[in-house]
Please model this.
Amino acid sequence: MRNVVCLLSICLIAGMFACSNQRREKELETRALVIHQKVLTLDTHTDTPMRLLNPEFDFAARHDPVQTGSRIDLPRMKEGGLDAVFFGVFTPQGSRTPEGYRKARERARLLLQAIHTTVQKYNSELELALTPEDAERIVGKGKRAVFIG
Model:
């Protein structure tokens, strides 16, 4: 009988501790969400422009990251409270020759055009930002800010 009482006491204490921890975690989560909603959230580098070169990729559609490799799209930006992104204009290291430089410039030009086209296509939800003040203004209008990096 004594063992049963001891076991029940341990279970009761463990249960109270678990409830206390769960309550504390919930409080912290709530506080974090309040902070998240108050600040401008920014992803400082995304490779999304590479996806924008694919005519079948629609930035306004949700994409499965496993199937497409896409980590950022407009629906997920909204759901996650992501206010602004830097779209990276990445060109892989090619040969350091006039032909290699030409290819790098052409790829960069295509990526820049894809960014501008996407921002223009979804101008009710996206706007190009050049300064931190632009981002604040854009987010204040209920849009997502797009920087180019």
User: Anything to note?
Assistant: The mean pLDDT is 86. The beta strands are 42-46, 84-87, 126-128, 144-148.
